[in-house]
Design the sequence.
């Protein structure tokens, strides 16, 4: 902590080292765009109200309360040094329950506080005015009530009382009421004061004030109750289910502490959606997005919950696995990226999903307030990124020993850690963030998993790799035609198994069921009975049940007894009786079948439609091409290359994802800007008076003659004024030739763009 005293804000700012300037620019990046040319420019930007508000939105409640107390001069001095200074806060126990020195250091890093020359703290110019306008009761810190309950209570009030509250909520919380104390008991103001929905301003008798929690409730916040606003809230002991418990009800027991079972369920969801969309593309609404009809179709086809489907579709679009088709307007199809995603290891898939969501500006939980529930083209919002990062960053404040919490606990924590962010407004972004984070395995029971914490330590890939079990090479085939897989098979083995068996219970212990229909699907996709037998015999830890072998062989024997060929379509068989049976089947009458020969019939529908109709009638046909070859139904359309606007670039550098929550600048960038500022400040101290106007050319000529460097102020091509330290070498044709000694870089300036010159007098 800087214990030196400073007579003014500018003097303190000028005393900062390069490292502290870099920290300041990192925390307040709005002051670094474009890079300031001097400390005067930086000071001007830092003291603007808009910059103050951005910086204050990153502070927690104790930091804001400390600033508010300093602004009122409500400081008591225990000893002569800064560590003994403590604010007096009515809502705090033992004066102030935080290390004042650490608070002061953190606020000085934001340039929101600096040590004055009277053994106290001072606020930079204009900050007290901004603090007085904040919708927080930082000097009183009364217990905060639950906003949802307050909103329900306010909805039952008489219209006149509701109108008073609404007016105050829209006009800065304060209202002037003449002789409010003498008002009769039935007056709306008196009734609101009695119900503690209004308070009297302690500084003036005729001013009413909207309490902080009532103000938040009227602005649709879902902030929870908190008895001691200055104390970091911790979860209460409860045994209720979490937000996504219903989605995990069918999963087997897994390592919830790491989020692995959550990820296994999400991976199953993505695989099911890819297979379903492969077979039949999604059709968007006229104004974009996937509506209820398509979601119901997907739910029927995949046996997945709507919440899972919505999150899965957004994940697939963000990864570029599905895209709007260029050939069919409003149709979403899979792309070539699907094969690449399914071919990589589970650890790579998990990391890619987390990083994609972490940088995605879209709400993966869908947009229920619109007609479209998923993939709404207008749903992207850059504020979601900040909300997502701040919510999960707040959860790192809880100790790792906490394993269970609820959404209300997170709401109280978030309101304490970021009282001024809009994460709790409306509730949609808040609840969506928690739900998707649990589906991704970042949360369990609304607390951070080990993988979730690794987001903030820069060790995401390593943590995932350490918790993903090695690929299993064995399965358990049971007498009821089910296959149990503990952990993850290799991508190739998983693909093969899912072709002839249907997932019955997903999770870290996945249960597959083999049926005649699933075997037929495998045969349709190009597998043979021998392939299935070999797979089971190679991987099964026990003998494959004989009855299952008979089921596979019987299905394979019947498969292909009928062959469908294009006419529009032709059905033929070596068995005339089978053709006659098909012709008589009521389920295929709509296909327009006509007999050409005892073993051949043609239809008026496409081969694919005839194939489906025959399957629904109980037959087991196969599809042929023009040359009699068997067609695989697995991927019936080519996957286009992806060029997806829903897809966000996913950095692989952990520093970008975990250490730059406050700034879009890297540490190297802010350090470079700080170095330039220090150099400019040093140049200003070591140079003579500034020369402008008609004195510029004679001064430059003097510098050329005496071979001395100058500080040149000029207008850049973009119209921005800048400064540079140069050695002038000559003037001719309305231009100045000069060289930067540090880099030996030559420069040429038009004389009419030079605004000021100062000769360097001291090295």
Sequence:
């Amino acid at each position: 902590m800087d214990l030196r005293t400073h007579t003014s804000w500018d003097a303190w700012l000028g005393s900062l080292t390069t490292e502290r300037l870099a920290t300041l620019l990192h925390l307040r990046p709005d002051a670094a765009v474009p890079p300031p040319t001097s400390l005067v420019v930086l000071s001007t930007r830092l003291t603007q109200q808009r910059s103050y508000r951005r910086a204050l939105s990153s502070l927690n409640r104790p930091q804001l309360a400390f600033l508010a107390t300093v602004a009122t001069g409500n400081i008591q001095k225990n000893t002569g040094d800064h560590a003994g200074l403590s604010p007096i806060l009515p809502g705090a126990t033992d004066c102030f329950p935080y290390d004042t020195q650490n608070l002061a250091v953190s606020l000085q890093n934001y340039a929101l506080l600096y040590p004055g020359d009277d053994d106290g703290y001072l606020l930079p110019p204009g900050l007290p005015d901004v603090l007085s306008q904040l919708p927080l009761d930082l000097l009183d810190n009364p217990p905060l009530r639950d906003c949802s309950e307050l909103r329900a209570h306010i909805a039952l009030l008489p219209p006149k009382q509701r109108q008073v509250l609404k007016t105050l909520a829209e006009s800065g919380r304060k209202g002037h009421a003449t002789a409010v104390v003498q008002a009769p008991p039935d007056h709306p103001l008196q009734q609101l004061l009695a119900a503690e929905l209004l308070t009297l301003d302690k500084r003036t008798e005729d001013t009413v004030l909207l309490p902080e929690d009532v103000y938040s409730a009227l602005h649709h916040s879902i902030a929870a109750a908190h008895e001691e606003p200055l104390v970091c809230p911790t979860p209460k002991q409860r045994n209720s289910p979490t937000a996504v418990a219903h989605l995990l009800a069918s999963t087997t027991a897994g390592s919830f502490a790491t989020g692995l079972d959550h990820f296994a369920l999400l991976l199953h969801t993505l695989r099911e959606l890819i297979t379903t969309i492969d077979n039949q593309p999604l059709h968007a609404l006229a104004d974009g997005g996937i509506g209820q009809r398509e979601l119901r179709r997907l739910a029927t086809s995949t046996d997945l919950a709507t919440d899972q489907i919505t999150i899965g579709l957004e994940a697939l679009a963000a990864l570029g696995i599905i895209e709007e088709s260029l050939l069919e307007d409003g149709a979403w199809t899979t792309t070539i990226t699907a094969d690449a995603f399914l071919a990589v290891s589970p650890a790579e898939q998990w990391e890619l999903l987390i990083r994609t969501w972490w940088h995605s500006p879209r709400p993966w939980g869908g947009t229920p307030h619109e007609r479209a529930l998923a993939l709404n083209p207008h749903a992207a919002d850059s504020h979601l990124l900040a909300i997502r990062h701040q919510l999960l960053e707040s959860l790192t404040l809880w100790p790792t020993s906490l394993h269970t919490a609820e959404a209300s606990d997170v709401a109280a924590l978030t309101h304490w850690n970021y009282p001024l962010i809009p994460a709790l407004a409306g509730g949609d972004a808040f609840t969506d963030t928690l739900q998707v984070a649990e589906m991704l395995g970042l949360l369990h029971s609304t607390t951070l998993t080990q993988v979730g914490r690794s987001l903030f330590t820069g060790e995401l890939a390593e943590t995932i790799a350490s918790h993903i079990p090695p690929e299993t090479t064995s399965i358990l085939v049971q007498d009821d035609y089910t296959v149990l897989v503990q952990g993850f098979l290799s991508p190739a083995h998983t693909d093969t198994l899912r072709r002839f068996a249907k997932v019955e219970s997903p999770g870290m212990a996945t249960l597959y069921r083999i049926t005649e229909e699933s075997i037929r699907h495998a045969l349709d996709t190009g597998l043979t009975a021998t392939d299935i037998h070999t797979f089971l015999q190679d991987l099964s830890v026990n003998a494959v049940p004989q009855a299952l072998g008979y089921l596979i062989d019987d299905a394979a024997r019947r498969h292909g007894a009928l062959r469908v060929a294009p006419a529009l379509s032709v059905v033929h068989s070596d068995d005339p009786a089978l053709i006659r049976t098909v012709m008589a089947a009521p389920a295929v009458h709509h296909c327009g079948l006509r007999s050409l020969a005892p073993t051949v019939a043609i239809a008026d529908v496409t081969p694919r439609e005839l194939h489906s109709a025959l399957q629904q009638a109980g037959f087991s046909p196969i599809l042929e091409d023009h040359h009699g070859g068997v067609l695989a139904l697995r991927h019936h359309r080519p996957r286009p290359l992806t060029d997806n606007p829903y897809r966000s670039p996913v950095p692989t550098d952990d520093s970008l994802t975990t250490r730059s929550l406050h700034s879009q600048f890297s540490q190297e960038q802010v350090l470079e800007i700080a170095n330039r500022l220090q150099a400019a400040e040093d140049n200003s101290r070591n140079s003579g008076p500034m020369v402008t106007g008609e004195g510029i050319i004679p001064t430059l000529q003097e510098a050329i003659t005496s071979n001395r460097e100058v500080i040149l102020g000029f207008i850049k091509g973009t119209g921005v004024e800048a400064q540079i330290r140069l050695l002038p070498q000559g003037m001719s044709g309305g231009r100045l030739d000069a060289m930067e000694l540090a880099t030996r870089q030559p420069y040429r300036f038009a004389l009419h763009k030079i605004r000021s010159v100062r000769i360097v007098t001291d090295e």
